[in-house]
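User: Before I run my own analysis I want an independent prediction to cross-check against. Here's the chain; please return only the structure tokens and, at the end, one sentence I can use as a sanity check.
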Amino acid sequence: MKRDLGLIRELLLIIEELEIPAGALGCYAIGESALQIDGYEDDAVAHHLIWLIEGGYVVGEWQQDGEFAISRLSWDGCEFLDDVRDPEIWRKTKERAKSAAGAGLGFMREIAKAELKTKLGLP
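Assistant: Structure tokens:
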């Protein structure tokens, strides 16, 4: 399965909104309404959430019963999401990245930062 950066962004936005008390874990099953994303199969959501945990963007773990125990976004997860939160910045970031096959999250973040600087009129 290939990474879908749009799905990654959507998952980060969803996790950011989960109301999990500090230090606690929220348990969520794939297919549960909290983790359902229109247009994506449950298996794709699960794969991408595992990658986000492995990549250090989400603090949590996949459990043997097929649920995810999620605590919060990590610092890196927050930083990436802040860079791509604005839908217009995200659209421009994806558009610019099309010319570079295989652009990863780090590269996408750099493009988003450049778009943000342009939007803010910074050099």
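Sanity check: The chain has two domains: 5-74, 79-120.
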